[in-house]
Amino acid sequence: MPPRLTREREDEILAVAFELMMEQGLDRVTIDAVAARAGASKATLYRRWPSKDELFIAAVQRLGRDAFRVPDEGSFREDVLAALRNSARWLAENRAVVQFLIYASRREPALERELQRQVAEPHDAVWLTLIERWRGRAGMRPGIDLGWLHRVCEGLFTSQLLPNEPALSDDYLVRFTDEIVLPLFTVS
Questions:
Q1: Sorting pLDDT into bands at 50, 70 and 90, what band is 172?
Q2: Does 138 score more than 70 pLDDT?
Q3: 87 CB burial (10 A radius; 0-12, 13-18, 19+)
Q4: Under 8 Å CB-to-CB from 26, ≥6 apart: which residues?
Q5: Looking at the predicted structure, is the pLDDT value of residue 62 above 80?
Q6: Are the C-beta atoms of residues 154 and 87 closer than 8 Å to each other?
Q7: What pairs with residue 140 in β-bridges?
Q8: Phi-psi region of 128 (alpha: psi -120 to 50; beta: other; left: phi over 0)
Q9: How far is it, in rounded angstroms, from Cα 126 to Cα 91?
Q10: CB burial readout 107-121, b (16+ within 10 A) else e
Q11: Could you tell me if 170 and 122 are in contact, meaning their C-beta atoms sit under 8 angstroms apart?
Q12: CA distance 47 to 32
């Protein structure tokens, strides 16, 4: 039996598959092209990923892996700001990829499910965890539905998927937190 791929080698191959997918489009990329650019045999690729779809789903899984961590900075403001900064940084690094995957997933239901599972759900979980952490705590506005925090912050990032939209600066994130989020959810 041939040796298993190391995680590092697997990541290299998935990065190549992802690059080719971005350059050529999902429909035009071949396993031959991935193998050639990665310096691997087709047999190696097919042993690890039995189909082209499985290879590209794994490439999408790699994109979201460890991307979204729940901050614990000690205050509502700092937690929100850290979550916004993490999300903005990740989106700035992966914007073109996410735009491409949203487009490609319209034709590939498996890719759409993986995009949802590997990117959208972990990102949502950050906000939902923060909501649970801060619900009912001192300093929070009484009776406010913290569920809105998720929607307000998601709206900020949804606009980033539009073409030619400038990346969010740290100053913008601080102002968004201080001028919009805090007045909505906290008492002065």
A1: very high
A2: yes
A3: buried
A4: 56, 104, 107, 108, 111
A5: no
A6: no
A7: 186
A8: alpha
A9: 15
A10: ebeebbebbeebbee
A11: no
A12: 14
What gap in Å lies between CA 184 and CA 99, rounded to an integer?
30
- Residue appearing with tokens 């940084």: 89
Q: What percent of the chain lies above the pLDDT cut of 90?
A: 49
Whether 64 shows a pLDDT value over 90: the answer reads no
Q: What is the pLDDT of residue 2?
A: 64
DSSP characters over 13-69: HHHHHHHHHHHH-TTT--HHHHHHHHT--HHHHHHH-SSHHHHHHHHHHHHHTT---
How far apart are alpha carbons 187 and 142 in whole angstroms?
Answer: 8
Determine whether 32 is exposed, middle or buried from the number of CB atoms within 10 Å of its CB (0-12, 13-18, 19+). Answer: exposed
Distances in whole angstroms, Cα of residue 101 to Cα of each of 60, 75, 91, 162, 181: 9, 35, 13, 14, 30
Q: How far apart are CA 50 and CA 9, in angstroms?
A: 17
Cβ atoms of 163 and 101 within 8 Å: the answer is no
Indicate the DSSP class of residue 117: I
User: For residues 78 and 84, what is the distance between their CA atoms, to the nearest angstrom?
Assistant: 10
